[in-house]
Amino acid sequence: MKKKIYLDYAATTPVDPRVVRSMLPFLSKKFGNTMSLHSFGQDAKNALDQSRSIVAKLINAKADEIIFTSSATESNNTALKGVAFTNSNKGKQIIISSIEHPCIMESAEWLEKQGFEITRLPVDKHGMINPEDVRKAIKSETILVSVIHASNEIGAIQPIEEIGKICRQKGIYFHTDASQSFGKILIYVKKMNIDLLTASSHKIYGPKGAGLLFVRQGVKIEPLLHGGGQEKGLRGGTVNIPAIVGFAKAAEICQKNMAKEEKRLSKLKQKLVNGLLKIKGSHLNGSLENSLPNILNIRFDFTEGESLVFQLDSYGISCSTGSACSSTSLEPSHVLLAIGLKPQEAHGFLRISLGRFTKQSDIDYLLKVLPKVVKKIRLMSPF
Questions:
Q1: What's the pLDDT tens digit per position in 308-355?
Q2: Which of 72, 92, 132, 374 could disulfide-link to 200, CB 3.0 to 4.6 Å?
Q3: How far apart are CA 332 and CA 313, in angstroms?
Q4: DSSP string covering 190-214, please?
Q5: How many Cβ atoms from other residues are within 10 Å of residue 343's Cβ?
Q6: Residue 232, SS3 per DSSP
Q7: Regarding beta strands 295-300 and 349-353, do their DSSP bridges make them parallel or antiparallel, or are they unpaired?
Q8: Sign (positive/negative) of CA torsion 88, 89, 91, 92?
Q9: How far apart are CA 265 and CA 356, in angstroms?
Q10: 3-state secondary structure 155-170
Q11: What domains sit in the chain, N to C, each tagged with a CATH number?
């Protein structure tokens, strides 16, 4: 049988078997609606409350500051649009970075059409934002700053605490999309001056269909979904208890193993970098410093990203060439353009992301196969 090696954990992760086991009772026996007063409903509500406490602990938040959603996309939309419409009487400027996930970028574009002013901050060649650029961009009409915690494409970890401090001093709400960092590196929302934070279940070995939005006590936002008063009235709709219980179990496992897993993945990533940079005409996008331990973005001269993905897949290796949410787009990566690459360079990259079930033998196999693949594609290249 052909080897099957999954190296696209930044796109999604397999559900951990322990998470599956935690969910099973809530798919059959404990199926109640949290809004019901009888025992079935109260069993579901107790599970919801316990799950809220577990995920809150991972970011040092209070349980009642966690709002469960269906996805990071919903959380990000709620954060931007919810703050915008609640605070439009104070001002209409929103500041984001130029390397946000597509759901932030497109929410910002939509708000722009509604009359809001969107300021997009540049990054340096490593994908890092200068906090002073945030300070300079803030004006009296600013109501929100939203900066991704760690890039889903190049893994760059932003100086969130410094940016948050500036926003707090100016009295401006600060949101961060922590979909890639949640459960992988330490996050303390209070210490980092975060007012709103987004996270996702399926990025940490939990089920798809569950996300969260941390909303600091006192922050006022308008809900996107109105309904039966669920989630403190900030997210209407019957609560997805099985997925939320799985999300909480996944968060609990991450918290227990975070330090050990970060160290293990960092070693695998370094081994990968050392091997890949031996290929002639290879370039690391971003930096090894201030980056997640599991995401590596590399490009090869005279190659094209989609060709690399398809050729590697024929060897049983699954990687990607950008954010999974926009990987079918023919447009060059906006993240790589933001760090200064030319359009043709921004097309020819490979994102390799490691995870819980990645073994050293997987890295060895990739390092054996990829040089052959790059050579083959270059022979076919018109350049």
A1: 999 999 999 999 986 545 445 567 889 999 999 998 888 889 999 999
A2: 72
A3: 21
A4: TTTT-SEEEEEGGGTTS-SS-EEEE
A5: 11
A6: helix
A7: antiparallel
A8: positive
A9: 8
A10: CEECCHHHHHHHHHHH
A11: 5-13+258-380 (3.90.1150.10), 17-253 (3.40.640.10)
Q: Find out whether 164 and 194 touch, Cβ atoms under 8 Å.
A: yes
Nearest residue to 254 (alpha-carbon basis) of 50, 52, 45, 55? 55
Contacts by residues 77-80 (CB-CB < 8 Å, ≥ 24 positions apart): 77/103, 77/107, 77/224, 78/213, 78/221, 78/223, 78/224, 78/234, 78/235, 79/144, 79/146, 79/175, 79/196, 79/198, 79/213, 79/221, 80/104, 80/107, 80/108, 80/111, 80/144, 80/146, 80/175
Choosing from 103, 167, 254, 325, the catalytic residue is 325
Q: Which residues contact 180 (CB under 8 A, 6 or more apart)?
A: 10, 148, 149, 150, 151, 152, 155, 203, 292, 295
Residue 325: active-site member: yes
pLDDT tens track for 137-194: 999 999 999 999 999 999 999 999 999 999 999 999 999 999 999 999 999 999 999 9
Mean pLDDT, range 27-42, rounded to an integer:
86
Tell me how far apart the alpha carbons of residues 57 and 67 are, in angstroms, rounded to a whole number.
Answer: 14
DSSP state of 14: P
Q: E strand or H helix at 351, and its extent?
A: strand 349-353
- How far CA 287 is from CA of 10, 151, 252, 291, in Å, comes to 17, 12, 30, 7
What is the distance of C-alpha 163 from the center of its chain? Answer: 18
Side-by-side strand order, sheet with 295-300: 282-284, 295-300, 349-353
pTM above 0.70, yes or no: yes
Beta strands in 261-345 (DSSP E): 282-284, 295-300, 317-318
**CB of 179 closer than 8 Å to CB of 101:** yes
Residue type at 281? Answer: G
